[in-house]
Design a protein that fits this description.
The complex is a heterodimer. By secondary structure, chain A is mainly alpha-helical. Chain A has helices spanning 2-33, 41-66, 74-90, 95-119, 124-142, 153-160, 165-192, 200-223, 231-249, 251-261, 263-268, 273-299, 310-320, 332-351, 356-380, and strands at 148-149, 301-302. Chain A has a two-stranded antiparallel ribbon with strand order 1-2. In chain A, helix 2 packs across helix 13 and helix 3 runs parallel beside helix 5. Chain A is globular and about 65 Å long. By secondary structure, chain B is of the alpha/beta class. Chain B has two domains: 4-238, 3-Layer(aba) Sandwich (Rossmann fold), CATH 3.40.50; 254-337 and 461-503, 3-Layer(aba) Sandwich (Rossmann fold), CATH 3.40.50.300. Chain B contains 18 helices and 22 strands. In chain B, the strands form five sheets. Chain B has a six-stranded mixed beta sheet, with helices on both faces. In chain B, strand 7 (108-109) and strand 8 form a beta hairpin. Chain B is globular. Classes of the chains: A mainly alpha, B alpha/beta. Chain A binds chain B through residues 1, 4-5, 8, 189-190, 192-193, 195, 249-255, 257-258, 261-262, 264-272, 328-329, and chain B through 307, 309, 329-331, 333-334, 340, 342, 347-354, 358, 362-363, 365-366, 369-374, 377-378, 380-381, 395-399, 416.
Amino acid sequence: MDETIKSRINTASLRAYVMIAVMGLIWAYFHWATDSIFLTPRNLSNLMTQMSVTGILAVGMLMVIVSGNIDLSVGSVLGFAGGMAAWALAAGYSLPIAIMLAIAVCVVIGLVHGVLTSYLNIPAFIVTLGGLLAWRGAVKWLLSGNTIPISDESFKAIGQSYVGANVGWLLAAVAIGFVLVMAVQRARSVKTYGLGEANYGGALLGSILPVGAIIAFIWVMNSYEGKGVPIPVLIFVVVALFGAFMTTSTTFGRYLYAIGGNADAARLSGIDNRRNVLKVYMILGALTGLAALIFAGRVGSATPDAGTLKELDAIAACVIGGASLVGGRGTIFGACLGALIMASLDNGMSLLNVRDFMQDIIKGSILVAAVGLDMAGRKQG
Amino acid sequence: MSLLEMREIVKEFPGVKALDGVSFTLGAGEFHSLVGENGAGKSTLMKVLSGVYPHGSYEGDILIDNTVRSFRGIRDSEAAGVSIIFQELSLVKELTVGENIFLGKEPSRFGVINWTELYHKASHLLRDLNLDIDPRVIVGNLGIGQQQLVEIAKALSKDARILVLDEPTAALTESEVETLFTILEKLKSRGVGMIYISHKLDEVFRMSDRISVLRDGRTVGTHSAAELTKDKVIAAMVGREVGDIFPKPEHEFGETALDVRGLNVYSIDRPDKALVENVSFAVRKGEVLGIAGLMGAGRSELLMAIFGAWKGKFSREISVDGSIAAISSPADAIAHGIGFVTEDRKRFGLILEQTILDNMTLAGLKSISGRYVCNRTRESIAAAGPMKSLRIKANSPLTIAGTLSGGNQQKVVLGKWLLTHPKILFLDEPTRGIDVGAKQEIYAEINRLAKEGMAIVLVSSELPEVLGLSDRVMVLHEGRVTGEFTRSEATPEKVMAAATGSY
């Protein structure tokens, strides 16, 4: 049994390794082409900050896609939520109220989309296409077509500040501790359930890679003028861990894969497909609200066209990361890696002064090529 | 001289001989019925005739007008005058009647359709059949019965000389059946040869010149209808020994586990059409209740409705262990200790791209793994039990379900429900399309579960299976109970007679 588990992990991880390798190639190329600017701590810190909004959206989007649905409205909803927060501040409400309002609005919008999709059986594509238009219209109405500047420094900090070098190391210590405790616990459970002897040595050996990655990450972030991890990146990492936990380790996550994989079989196994789809839209809503706060904070204002086309970035990230639009397949790790690849392309091409129309053409082509190669690989496998 | 002759047709699928030397003839203007149990090979034979299974994929010869034909596809057989009306309609619901009739052969010039000619020809064709249907009406707006008649008009527009009707009356009302038969009489007088496939023996005897009975991929006999009676046909359809392949261990039954009163189930598309009417039954602990019936008798719909999974309208009163149970969803049913090994494992039972482990733990996930957070180790331990006891042959629990053989897939579905620890288990076609070895293992498991006190409701199209495993057999015909037999009373002839509505 041990051997087959290993072989399965290998096939499942093969994709991830290939994607990491592809990203390595892209990074190496940009580093070379930009005369060693791309892989500097400064640029990497910017890159991570740039990807955080798309990354957070991609985590929520992945869960929706896995359940066999789609959300085309997240860009507009993001704009609307940012507008709500800025409007609330301008109207004299406190920052916590503004934050709560933005997130609550997004959760309610997710609830509405979810009810229309799963209880009224309107196809998700149509519901959220309508949402794409309607919520964009709503934000234009709310802001009367104007840009509202954000003066509250604490709000801007959500998108612009850093946690500081020492806090960064503290976080690293906590994360490393967590990784080690989990590894030991997993090894111990093997013994607890009588499946064999606990292999603590192996567990520690397996922890080397994640521990190394954590240290390297904090070190690079701290190397950028000692600023440490950007707040948006920290939020993104927390969201990604939350998403990974939800999809792999909860009954809710397992149900999402079952619903997307075979809705009839899931229903007949006693799963309430509708309620679970409703939940997943509400989760995406909450994450969209979070992303909206980061976006508005980073830009320092709420604009009527904030978040335009963000839904496509999020969907592309999921698809590049191996998610199937039919449902039932995809991982949070893949979606985050997809978001990082998309952000790397944006960042690298901007450094190279590639004209914006050319950037769009290249990104579009890479999206189609990535899925094409994936399909070809699947057929062979 | 015969219009059609099929000689010694042999058609094999991996592991199964679906047709084993079947011969069949049809004369001009002849009405020749083809009857047999589900899976006897009727549909396969018609697919060979129509070119769905192309020349070369079967052995034997097809002769039309005494010339050997080798059809590569449906187009070839249609060109030779063969037209098949399948059970599932093949009309495009969004198009008009006229468009459907001439689909793919629209009267046109340089690719531009001549609509006037199309509708003129269509209305001519419909009038010729005494059908009062406007060719400009959208097909989806017609009733199922009228759609069926349009389908026949479409077949005739291709100058069909050999018309195959596969259960054409399954969805028709009685008056629609009359219209259909009037048309068939007319076609017969014009010299169209017809092959009529039906489970309804009344209809079969109504017009047939000859009747052929298929069983297990062989022709049992072809006789003129005048020489036959319903009883003789039924005997020929079942005609095999239910021997000792089903050792039935004797054991005592307990108290009533499930009691269903006044079950009505209505069609999803036509909420006024009842698929199951006023059915009541009870099953005791340790008892196997077999539900027999032919395709379309309402067996699966009955189980789906009790389980709270039927998507259309239904009504019934259910008691579990003597107290009223409100079951409005599969989750409710599971909570009341009901498990449901559904038919068509690929469609309803499995998530093919997931692992055996994920599939097996799905229905009972919250109790096996944890209410909110999963514990993979606990899941592995739980799944190991059924994997071993059902002898699921796979490298590991992490093998992808879609890569397993049919028998092993079926065992995974069974295992999934055993992991919910049901007190009552529904089995719908539990051995369809699986090899003999796996069948035997599933039979043994059913007997073992009954002996342990589980109440079992078994639906199967295989008569020997129902008779061999059941302590009691309930027979459905067109949604009504037409017979109920104890194990000692139940003979293949009696059950088949009840299933064809002639008991």
